[in-house]
Each structure stands twice: as C-alpha cells, then as structure tokens.
Design a protein that fits this description.
Layout (H helix, E strand, L loop, with lengths): L3 E4 L2 H12 L11 E6 L5 H11 L2 E2 L5 E3 L2 E4 L1 H4 L2 E4 L9 E4 L14 H9 L6 E5 L4 E10 L2 E5 L6 H20 L10 E5 L7 H16 L6 E6 L2 H11 L5 E10 L2 E6 L7 H15 L6 H16 L14 H12 L13 H18 L14 E2 L1
Parallel strand pairs: 1-15, 2-12, 2-13, 5-11, 11-12
Antiparallel strand pairs: 1-14, 3-4, 6-7, 7-9, 8-9, 9-10, 13-14
Length: about 375
C-alpha cells in the first residue's frame, strides 16, 4: 500500500509539492507535473495561494522583488466583473481589474489575438477589448430575416464567461511556455479548478487542450493542477499518461489541522467511489446520520444514469424488501437534513440504511482502491 502523508498545514503541503517538482538532492526524482484531486472544502484554493506566496521574494520595505508562479484560481476569476447597465440595460461589458499585474502587457503582447485563438475552440462569440477603459464587449451573429446581423453588448452566460477567463489565462500560459521575455520569471504554473460552471463536454475539451498545450515539445514549466471534478481529473490523468514525469495525489481534509496526501498510483478514481467508501466507513462505525440518506440516493442516481435506468428503484430491484427500501430512500432523502445540524438516526432507521447500502454494494460489487482506506503506516509531516 502506498504511504499516506499527513500534514498539519497547507504551507507544509505547498513545500512538499515544490520539493516534488524540484529535488536538488536527487534531481532524478524530480517531477514535471503534479495532478491533485480534492473535494470542495479540502483547501485546494488556499493551497494554490500558499504555493504562490512561497515563490515570492521581498525587499526590506516589504515590496515584492520577484515571483515564480503563474496561477489560476478563484482569485483570478474575481479580476473580471460585469457592468450590467441597470439603468438602460444596453451598455453591458466585462470589466478588467487592471490594478492586478495579471493584465500587464495586455496590448503590447497582442493577447487579444491569442485569446481569440483559444476562445473560438469552445464558443461562437466575438469580443473586442477596449484597452483605454479596461473592458471587454461581447457580440454574436444572428440571422434576421435572412440576413446576418451582429448584436453587440450582449451578456454572456456564466459558462461562456468562465471559458473566456480561462482562455485569457491560456494565452498568458502560451507566452510563458514560449519563453516570452515578459514572462521569463515563470518557473511554475499552478491551476486550480478551472472548469466551474461548465458542462462535461467542455470539461473534457478543456482537459484535452490543456494537456496538449503543456506537453507539446515537452513540459518546460513545472505545473500543478488541482480539481474537485472527477471527470476532469480522469481525462487529464489519461491524457498526460506516461508522456510526462508526474505525481498524482488525493488531498483530503480529515479533521482540524490534519491534511492527508496520498499518491493515487496508476489507477485514476472517481468521485462516487470516494462517497461510497465514506458511507462504508459510516456503516461500519454505526455513526449514521439522517443526511447520509441524501448521499446514498446520490450514488443510486449516478448508478441509474450509468445503466440508463429512468428511476433509482431499478438499482435495488431484486433485493429483499426492495419496495420498503425504495420508500425509505424517497422519504429520508427528501427531508430537510442539513450537514450543519446533523441528527443521528434511531436504531431501526440505522438498520434500514445498512440493509439498503449492503444490498446495493453486494449487487454491484464495487472495488475500493487503497486510496480510500484508512492507512496503517501514515507518515506525519
């Protein structure tokens, strides 16, 4: 079983990731890429900031004199905001917070052309950057009475907005990878959850395009990619494959001041397996709360979708007391049970939950990778 590393702070994890990517003592052990999976709340965004801060140098007055990490995370997305023209509802544009160094060289480096080359891979929209007012105006073409007509100042969807910001970042990444003098300082690229608000088709496209961008000609810049999206993780896992020297980790926030990091090995994993594993531990501990029925129902819905079933009751068809099980799932999973105000089940309901869960597991014979098992030889850092 692979060793599970325990950390007390995200700073310690950031230090570990840097050591994985640059091992001065044993250069042969260095990796070019770290692929990190973690559920929401595990600390991925905060970890990206710790990693970024660790690469800064300061003078005696506290001013930043150098940095080494180009990063994308929720803070990057916050550099863009909408002016919706609430008064007239006509003059809508995307504002750029040019107080950030993220936008340095926007005009001089012809980023607009580079952004466009990426953006048009995903959507059929046009945009124009107003450099003087630090804003972006979007437009689209429609056919009106048989003639093509351009509609300006449109408000794009949240998914299209995410794609534009992502393509903006990719354009900068391309400059860094191409060793443009303006980005010669970039030694690391850190990407955290770039696909919020996107459907699975775009998630796959982005993963493939990102892997292609980073591996064309070999990875020149050390890279960390973290995500909570299981499909995105698995596509990246397979796209990178053995093309690059990489480490793949599962990040888990187990309890206050304890983070664990485990190498996933050569087997990618899926979100639903992690949930089932957690429910398995819940059943074994007998600490079953009302909201666990919601998690179990979620698993049944994913299973039903996989097999093409129209209802979740078909996932438990053939089990003893299947009618009772189906009613229990409907009743308990639709209750207003909050994880922030957990209520432990009474004995009879616990037994019912166990029977449904164990029957479901026995029917489909899920395999639980070691990554989801409690380690017996964990190293604390």
């Amino acid at each position: 079983m692979s060793e599970v590393l325990k950390f007390t702070t995200l700073t310690d994890i950031a230090k570990h990731l840097r050591e994985v990517l640059k091992n001065d003592a044993k250069p042969s052990l260095e990796k070019d890429l770290v692929l990190l999976f973690g559920h929401n709340g595990a600390g991925k965004t905060r970890l990206s900031m710790e990693f970024k801060e660790m690469g800064k140098a300061y003078d005696d007055d506290g001013n930043v004199t150098s940095r080494d990490t180009l990063y994308f995370n929720a803070f990057t997305e916050d550099l863009f905001s909408w002016h919706n023209d609430l008064e007239n509802d006509t003059d809508r544009y995307f504002k750029l917070n040019t107080d950030s160094t993220f936008f340095n060289g926007l005009r001089e480096l012809q980023l607009e052309t580079k952004i466009e080359s990426f953006f048009h891979n995903y959507v059929d929209l046009k945009f124009n950057i107003d450099y003087e007012n630090a804003s972006v105006i979007f437009s689209r073409s429609d056919i009106v009475e048989g003639a093509e007509q351009t509609i300006d100042n449109i408000k794009i969807s949240r998914g299209e907005e995410t794609l534009f910001i992502w393509c903006f970042f990719l354009a900068i990444c391309q400059l860094a990878i191409d060793q443009d003098p303006a980005y010669s300082w970039v030694k690391y690229i850190y990407i955290d959850d770039p696909i919020s608000s996107l459907d699975e088709n775009n998630a796959i496209s982005i993963a493939c395009d990102l892997a292609n961008l980073l591996t064309t000609g070999g990875i020149e810049i050390k890279t960390v990619i973290s995500t909570h999206h299981s499909l995105f993780f698995n596509v990246l896992f397979n796209e990178f494959g053995r093309k690059v020297k990489s480490k793949r980790y599962f990040l888990h926030f187990k309890e206050p001041d304890i983070y664990t990091l485990q190498d996933t090995g050569d087997t990618p994993f899926f979100h639903h397996i992690a949930i089932i594993s957690e429910l398995k531990k819940v059943v074994e501990s007998d600490k079953i709360f009302t909201y666990h029925f919601n998690a179990l129902r979620s698993i049944l819905e994913k299973t039903a979708s996989f097999f093409g079933y129209d209802k979740i009751d078909k996932c438990i068809h053939g089990l003893e007391d299947e009618v009772l099980f189906e009613r229990a799932l409907q009743l308990f999973s639709h209750g207003k049970y909050s994880i922030f105000d957990p209520q432990e089940m009474i004995g009879d309901n616990k037994d019912l939950f166990k029977r449904i869960f164990n029957g479901f597991i026995a029917k489909y014979e899920f395999h639980f990778p070691e990554i989801f098992n409690e380690p017996t030889n964990a190293a604390t850092i």
